[in-house]
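Possible regression after last week's pipeline update?

I re-ran a chain I had predicted before the update to compare outputs. Posting the input and the new output here so someone can diff against the archived version. Not blocking, just want to make sure nothing changed silently.
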Amino acid sequence: MPLSLFDDRVNDTTKAAMVQNFSRPANQPTAKRLNAKFFDHHTPLEEYVTSKSLTMFDLLSMNGQEEARQFLLKPPADWPIDPAFQMLSAKAKQLRVVNDCAERGIALITSYNAALTKDESQKQYLLRLVAGHRKTFPVPTKKNLNQKTLNNTG
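New output (post-update):
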C-alpha cells in the first residue's frame, strides 16, 4: 500500500490520510500479503496503512525512513519537487512485479517436461493425450472418475 504514495492516480487527500496512518500500530502481527477473501475493495487505501508500512521505505533505500520523513512532513502537493521523494519514487518505479506462484509453476512444468522425454514428437503426443484426458474428465475428482469408469464399463 505505501507504494501508492508514488502513484499520480492517488489523490493528495488520500496520500495525506496515509501519512497520518503511519503512526497507527500494525493490526496484524506478520501480514505479508493481503488476503483476497477479506480484502474489501470499498475500504479506502489509507485504512490499510500502519506503522509497519514504513519498512517499505527502508527496502527502497538504506536510510529510507529518514529520507521519507523529509517529504512526508510536507503537503502531498509539494512532494514532486522534493529530492528525497524523487529519488524514492524513481526506485519504486524500477520495481518489477513478480508472480512467484506462476513462475514456480512454469519452472516446475518445464523441468518435468524435460524429464519425461527429449523427443519432440513424444512431447506433442503427451500434450494431445493430456488435452484429451481433460476433455473426458473436465472436473478431476474421484467421484467423477469413478462415474465415468462405471458408465464406460456398464
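Follow-up from reviewer: compared with the archived run. The helical segments are 12-21, 55-60, 64-72, 83-94, 100-116, 120-136, 142-153. Marking as no regression found.
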